[in-house]
Amino acid sequence: MRNCIEEREFNLFLEDGLSHEDMRSMIDHAQTCAACREQLEGWKSLKATLDAASEIEIPPTLKVRVMEGVAKEKILPLLKPMGFRRTLAACVLVLLVAGYFLLPAVWPYIGSFVNDGILYLSTAFYNGLSFVGLDMKAVMGVFRVVVDIFNQYFWVFATSTLLLIVGFCSLILLGNKKLKAN
What we know:
The chain is an all-alpha fold.
């Protein structure tokens, strides 16, 4: 003899998920078990109610009314437009932060261009000074030292960039406090 019908089987019945054999077995058991028969009748009534509810016609203006109701609600506060100075400060800040973090990664690629540019400028300067009549070996030595110092003290430049970022942040925060005070 079969055990009583489990709730998951009733759920499958509700969702039309039972095979024909399982459905026949459920009905056969419900004919012999009063408790399961009563439950099955309740589930059949629920299924009929749900099937009838799916035939309810949705009013055509429902979407418009819902969207109007959503539009009337203020979900997010409105943001005040930023002034030109604050926008400029934010852009400079973003560029400085990006430069601080990206420069070490791209320096191997752009370092040779920078060095070549400095070398080109020093050559042009050398030619200009030789035209005037100055000692070019001494001048070229100074430029080589400048290039070497630039490469050796790269982190000094990166740290100064970070300090500029902190300075801009403090200026922006001080500006916000003054605006709020007014």
